[in-house]
Amino acid sequence: MERPRITIFDTTLRDGEQSPGCSMNVQEKLRLAQQLDRLGVDVIEAGFPIASDGDFEAVQSIAASLRRPIIAGLARACTGDVDRAWQALQGAARPRIHVFLATSDIHLKYKLRITREKCLEQARDAVRHAKSLCPDVEFSPEDATRTDVAFLCQVVEAAIAAGATTVNIPDTVGYSMPEEYGNLIRTLREKVAGIDKVTISTHCHNDLGLAVANSLAGVQAGARQVECAINGIGERAGNASLEEIVMAMRVRPDRYPYETAIAGEHLYPSSQMLAEITRVPVQPNKAIIGRNAFAHEAGIHQDGMLKNPLTYEIMTPQSVGVPDSRLVLGKHSGRHALALRCEQLGHQFERRELDEIYRRFVVLADRIKKVQDSHLLELIQDVASGNVSSSDVTGSKGKRFPPAAATLQFPRAVSAAAGANASDSHPAQVSGSAGQASVSIPFTDHHSEQEDYLWGV
Ligand SMILES: [Zn+2]
Fold it and tell me: How far does the centroid of ligand 1 lie from the alpha carbon of residue 374, in Å?
């Protein structure tokens, strides 16, 4: 059975850019938009043209330079905004006008100071006007999750009747719970006339850390577009994180049997580019693309990883574009991991040599948190010039510690080299070949398995 296709609507350049410290100039936005195109997003919300001349220009230049993705421009529900958005989108191959209007009583009363009747009329008029200019119109009832449900149904129905082709249901303040959000989407599908002919979209904020969970609940309830941002940037606590949404569906197709057009190997580079442009760093433990997302320090974890990555890895770093799993060497590391790192640095040791290096490594790791390659090289030099005599050292050509003859590889690296699907993102479901590929353990007189990580427990 074919899996339903989910449209990935990226709002990094609009909602994302609204987050403190994340403003970008036109050139930076264009560069990021080109990366989003490589990443394979379906829709790029390029900006809010009436908000500033810079935003207008950014939408205009992105619309003119990218032909594949739909380019959306945001507009409040009034003629001036819609016209300005349409003007910015003139050069687009696939333009979309995104009209929004708050619908919750609290927004109507205190922010807009209009009645529900006026709100309904304004939404209908703005969508109708947008539709007269552009065939692709999205409508968002802002603060939908705090809107009276019967009234929300009424507004959405009016927007569809006026020509909206996508209706987006924003959890603007990040207040919803997953079950609740899913139920809201179900209710709309049951009660709104014509909703089966349009695409339902999610737009969830992360104020309670539930943006991704809410978006996925929305998809399970029938939404077919997800609005999200790279690194989860956005107003306040941010938007649903694009990389988390995509990988949740890819790693767990048993629970989320949906497809996206995202090229996984561009996730990490996109995240890095955004962080570099905005100079807003990614938190180290951020899922999927954080510095530590694929790092294993505890000895027992490292040992398991070396024997078979499936022990602690539910997706490969390569599947999201991270160059390789980095085993962080710290005081909890075992000698197996240390030997591998030494090999990667071009040094192969006999058991006795390794014992000495390991002894010194543990002392060093106790002093400094993280042992870098440079520290390790220094330590190797120390051992080489001190306690180990040249006759004990294997190799020739005047080098005391010659480069390893063969580099130790993780099983997946072996399978990648053999032409297997390196971007396979469901390793947990792979049985046999990839996980079973041979690993050359660098110890001939390998001691007890336990000893490898006794130090780290
Ligand atoms: Zn938002």
Answer: 44
Owner of token pair 């999205």: 138
Residue with tokens 């200019």: 133
Cα Rg of the chain (Å, integer): 27
Round to whole Å and give the CA distance between 114 and 104: 11
What is the C-alpha to C-alpha distance for residues 70 and 46, in angstroms, rounded to an integer?
Answer: 10
Q: Pick from 231, 289, 274, 279: which is nearest to 29 by CA?
A: 274
**Cα–Cα distances in Å, from 179 out to 221, 283, 298, 378?**
10, 28, 36, 55
Tell me the whole-structure pTM to 2 decimals: 0.75
Distance 422 CA to ligand 1 centre (A): 35
| Gap between the Cα atoms of 178 and 211, Å rounded | 9
Ligand 1 centre to CA of 172 (Å) is 6
Please check whether residue 218 is in contact with residue 202, taking contact to mean a CB–CB distance below 8 angstroms. Answer: yes
Give 124 Cα–ligand 1 centroid separation in angstroms: 21
CA atoms within a 13 Å half-sphere pointing along the CA-CB vector of 360: 17
Q: Is the Cβ–Cβ distance between 268 and 320 less than 8 Å?
A: yes
How many CB atoms are closer than 10 A to CB 254? 8
Distance 252 CA to ligand 1 centre (A): 26
- Contact between 138 and 98 under an 8 Å Cβ cutoff? The reply is yes
31 CA to centre of ligand 1 in angstroms: 22
Q: What is the mean pLDDT of each run of 10 residues along the chain (457 residues)?
A: 94 93 94 96 98 96 98 98 98 98 96 96 98 98 98 98 98 98 98 98 98 98 98 96 98 97 94 90 94 82 83 88 71 84 76 90 87 83 66 35 31 34 39 35 39 36
What does the angle CA 452 – CA 453 – CA 457 come to, to the nearest 5 degrees? 165
Measure the CA–CA gap between 361 and 338, rounded to whole angstroms: 9
* Calpha distance 437→448 (Å, rounded): 22
d(CA 37, CA 260): 14
Token match 């947990």: residue? 428
Alpha carbon 329 to its chain's center: 26
How is 21-52 classified by DSSP, letter by letter?
T----HHHHHHHHHHHHHHT-SEEEEE-TTT-
